[in-house]
Amino acid sequence: MFYHIRSHALIPLECAYKDCQESFRTPQQLVRHHEAVHRNDPLKPSAALFTPELSPLPAAPEKLPAYMVEARQVQPPSISKDRHNTLGPWVGTKRYQFISHPAE
């Protein structure tokens, strides 16, 4: 998860908990802060929902390019069973390595 956050997040990483103004340079620092300081604290409220103001669409031109009117079939890229068997376990370890499971 740290690597995923690092690949997408903007620095500084701000704390998501109510009444906390802390910010951090790395995902690890942020996670340590959350675990040490905010175990059961409430999160900051999300942005308020709103209805966007939509303007009417302009009229379509008399002649449309084919790509705008032809339905194209969408399908996932093909991958060989061998390649899938090689990549599958690796993706699983990268995706789930930081998830902690509660003890039963």
Automatic annotation (TrEMBL):
Transmembrane segments: none annotated. InterPro entries: Znf_C2H2_type. The keyword Zinc-finger applies. PROSITE patterns: ZINC_FINGER_C2H2_1, ZINC_FINGER_C2H2_2. Keywords: Metal-binding, Zinc, Zinc-finger. GO terms for molecular function: zinc ion binding. The keyword Electron transport does not apply. Residues 13-43 form the C2H2-type domain. This is C2H2-type domain-containing protein. The lineage of its organism: Eukaryota, Fungi, Dikarya, Basidiomycota, Agaricomycotina.
